[in-house]
Design brief:
The chain is mainly β. The chain is built from no helices and eleven strands.
């Protein structure tokens, strides 16, 4: 069974920085897309940033120029560097992976448990 374990959330002041990490463990043959989503109180979960296995990235307009997603394929780990944080970035951040457990397996999705990021004004 594949699990995603996130770390790095916390409380930061406006303008500050945080780095989130998400490590995948378990039976993994290949991970295609990895991404970070977030969900603020009373709002729907939204995509923050995604990265393909080849390194192609995409970002929500609201975080472009402030957040950077990266991944270490050898460690099955994805990172999210968040700079110039704003109070509206406050949310629970979830890690996501699209993977195959074995060569013969179908593609599956897995989510992390979430890590809270709070930006104080």
């Amino acid at each position: 069974q594949v699990q995603l374990v996130e770390s790095g959330g916390g409380l930061v002041q406006t303008g500050g920085s945080l780095r989130l990490s998400c490590a995948a463990s378990g039976s993994i043959f290949m991970i295609n897309n990895m991404a970070w989503y977030r969900q603020a109180p009373g709002k729907q979960r939204e995509l923050v940033a995604g990265i393909m296995s080849g390194g192609i990235t995409n970002y929500a307009d609201s975080v472009k120029g402030r957040f950077t997603i990266s991944r270490d394929n050898a460690k099955n780990t994805v990172y999210l560097q968040m700079n110039s944080l704003k109070p509206e970035d406050t949310a629970v951040y979830y890690c996501y992976a699209y993977f195959r457990a074995t060569f013969a397996s179908r593609w599956s999705e897995v989510w992390g448990q979430g890590t809270l990021v709070t930006v104080s004004s």
